[in-house]
Design goal:
This protein is an alpha+beta fold. The protein has two domains: 259 residues, Beta Polymerase, domain 2 (2-Layer Sandwich), CATH 3.30.460.20; 63 residues, Methane Monooxygenase Hydroxylase, Chain G, domain 1, CATH 1.20.58. 55% of the residues lie in helices and 17% in strands. It contains eleven helices and seven strands. Helix 7 runs antiparallel to helix 8 and helix 8 runs antiparallel to helix 10. The longest helix has 64 residues.
Length: 336
């Protein structure tokens, strides 16, 4: 099972610009050109929100020129596979967050790079990532809240990223529940063990993607960054709580998978032990006629019982009695 999110043509623009919009008091007033974004952001009460998807070097250079972004931040934004982090470059913040989706049963990761400064926020998406158009459309219906500024938009995007971890975990949870139901019925096959390993590995990667955001949000809510107003600290602490919930769920799922693997091993060992007991029991029972037949099969003339008239039925009766007693004892001890 896998949650596959289709990326629309609007999310994959040829020029790399998903949206470039100016807001005044939380109200959308114009779609603007990238080369005019800097001027719009400097107007009193204006906020520019730009969304980019896998932009080219030239496009990033144009954005850098408009907002005077640091070279190191631009270099990081151009090359994905960064660890989640927050950096301060002058009067701007640079934030990296990892996104996740479940595609064909495997967790696929993407990245979002965020530039935040006075009057602007720029989001740069790489790889697997849900479009932030939903965030934009939702908060455009609440202009009084969106009017809080670029730090509120930053909160909205980070909260959206963290909330999107949960559908991934819910899908994995369903599969883990199925594994739990099967594991006590029969030992795992090689395919089951391989899938279990993949799930634990993906959960670890997801934890590594989500975990560093705790430190990011701690700094955003700690009062040490002038770009973040004190009124926003509570909201970023709320995102931190969501991340910790994600971490706990990941840890619980990984622990359940570990227990499932151990339980499967125990079930397999128990079945092997039961089979070994049965084989040993039947071997002991069959050893009796084998031993008696072996003795009387020796080619000696002076075996005393050879001349006994009832020797044959007596030997058969002895074998049957001993085998019956052994069978009864093994059954009583649950070996058969």
């Amino acid at each position: 099972m896998g949650l596959i999110t289709e990326i629309s043509a609007a999310d994959m623009p040829e020029n790399g610009v998903v949206a470039s919009t100016a807001y005044v008091e939380g109200r959308r007033i114009a779609d603007i050109a990238i080369d005019d974004a800097g001027a719009w952001s400097q107007k009193e009460g204006h906020v520019v929100w730009i969304g980019l998807w896998e932009p080219s070097h030239e496009l990033l250079a144009r954005v850098q020129k408009q907002f005077h972004l640091h070279d190191l931040a631009i270099e990081d934004a151009e090359h994905p596979h960064q660890r989640p982090k927050i950096e301060q470059y002058g009067d701007a913040l640079f934030i990296v967050a990892r996104t996740a989706q479940l595609i064909r049963g495997r967790v696929s990761f993407g990245e979002t790079h965020l530039f935040v400064g006075k009057g602007y926020i720029v989001s740069v998406r790489h790889g697997t990532s849900t479009s932030y158009a939903k965030v934009r459309q939702h908060w455009e219906t609440c202009p009084t809240i969106l009017a809080k500024g670029e730090d509120f938009i930053l909160y909205a995007i980070l909260d959206f990223i963290v909330d999107n971890y949960m559908p991934v975990l819910e899908q994995i949870q369903e599969e883990v529940d199925e594994i739990e139901d099967r594991v006590l019925a029969k030992p795992m096959t090689n395919i089951d063990i391989e899938r279990l390993y993949m799930l634990r590995r993906d959960l670890l990667r997801l934890r590594n993607a989500a975990g560093p955001l705790v430190e990011v949000c701690r700094r955003l809510s700690g009062g040490e960054l002038p770009q973040i107003r004190p009124a926003m600290h509570t909201l970023f602490r709320d995102v931190t709580d969501h991340i910790r919930t994600v971490q706990e769920k990941i840890d619980n799922l990984r622990e359940v998978l570990a227990f499932a693997f151990e339980a499967s091993l125990l079930v397999g060992q128990s079945q092997e032990t039961a089979i070994a007991k049965k084989l040993a029991s039947w071997a002991a029972i069959l050893a009796v006629p084998t031993a008696v037949a072996g003795i009387y099969g020796m080619n000696f003339h002076d075996i005393p019982e050879l001349s006994f008239e009832y020797g044959y039925p007596a030997v058969l009766g002895f074998i049957l009695t001993v085998c019956s007693v052994l069978y009864w004892r093994f059954r009583k001890n649950n070996w058969l």
